[in-house]
Amino acid sequence: MKTLFVYPGSFSPPTYGHLCIVKQAATITPELIIICSTNEDKNNIFTEEESVTLWQAYKLPPNVRVLTFASFLAEGINPKNIVMVRGIRDSQDFDYEKKVAFLNRDNFGIDKFLYIMSNPETENISSSAARKAAEELRLVDLAKLVAPRVATALLEKTLHIKNLVLVVGRPGSGKSTFLRQLTKLDPQNIHINTDEFNHQLKPILQATFGAEDLATLILTREAEIQKVIAPAWMKLLTEALRKVPANSNVFIEVPYAFKPNMRLDKLFGGKTIYFDCQDVSENERRLKARATPHLNSLITTIPDWAETQRLAEEENLQIGRIDTSGNLSKMKKRAKLLVDMLTTPRPLFPFPNSNSNLVFGLQRIPCHHPRPSFSTKDRQHIRSALD
């Protein structure tokens, strides 16, 4: 039987550090199998199946596949044909890995190992560091450790909520109107409207820029604005997140999240919904009707659906589009559709295609592997060999 290179771990969650090891190993092995297992000595906040799904947040080399521990057992591999891939970050890891090697050799017959040193930029990244950053809602730090989809999943676990969804779209696309309908139809849907932060941020802006119009400032001095208000804005967001009730669906409305100089999707955009009325003239009409025509100049500064979709695919985000064209009655019906989706057992993403053109979706459907039955003794022996 051919030699199999395996990279086992709990991966709860998989991080950029793990990805670094995978990419290096993939260049020197014909095939690499990532095995997601449960380590009782670690804080496994994700199941094996969830960890497999989270690996989809990363763009893996074509010669890499991801299995649950049970699925790997089902392949009936002889330990003598296994080369275990291990990542080493520092001298402490090296001392630990010597013990692991002796244990596997003496007790399980696995005697071949491939050790890969972490890159300097990822050697301090770990699953425990990512979990801690999520617990403390340090969103910027978390984004340096894991992919956006993983960050979203971690925040959902930490906050004990069902879904954390980033809402984007151009001014006048009906985002706030739609989300008010969602909260009205079901109080478990929580709307965090970051535009409302402006009231608390206004004194900071006035102290720095004087009485200039905010829309004009955004167009002419956006980089300066970001630098001045970013810490306060992030603090307001984390305070809002700490208040959300358990088991809720949380929608964070940040219209400009995908702007090139913003890219807040990298912080919490693992699940994103783009609201689109499909016609810039309709955006302008709505802004005029609500007496905010001064926002017209901001419409084209926010990426359209095609560009947002492209940016989302680059980051492997899960993204869907909601068509908000038409009158309020149609929007209410579409809100009811989304509420129905949120109350079913199936995951919110990927969005189902809709013949009625109400909801569109993309992204691959996660692939779950079957879990065959094994004795407790078999599981303990092989798990010990792989962890």
Structure characterization notes:
The protein has 2 domains: 4-125 and 370-386, Rossmann fold (3-Layer(aba) Sandwich); 160-349, 3-Layer(aba) Sandwich (Rossmann fold). It has 16 helices and 11 strands. The protein is elongated, with a radius of gyration of 24 Å. By secondary structure, the chain is of the alpha/beta class. The model is unreliable at 354-387 (pLDDT under 50). The strands form 2 sheets. A 6-stranded mixed β-sheet has the order 7-8-6-9-10-11, sandwiched between helices. Strands 3-2-1-4-5 form a 5-stranded parallel β-sheet, sandwiched between helices.
Q: Approximately how much helix is present in the residues? A: 40-55%
Q: Give the topology string: H per helix, E per strand.
A: EHEHEHEHEHHHEHEHHHEHEHHEHEH
Tell me the CATH superfamily of the largest domain: P-loop containing nucleotide triphosphate hydrolases
- Given the C-alpha coordinates, what overall shape results? elongated
CATH architecture of the largest domain: 3-Layer(aba) Sandwich
- How far the N terminus sits from the C terminus, by CA atoms, comes to 23 Å
CATH class of the largest domain: Alpha Beta
Structural class: alpha/beta
The DSSP helix count reads 16
What ranges have pLDDT less than 50 throughout 5 or more consecutive residues? 354-387
How many distinct domains?
2
Précis, in short:
Residues 354-387 have low confidence and may be disordered. The longest helix is centred in the middle third of the chain and has 21 residues, at 222-242.
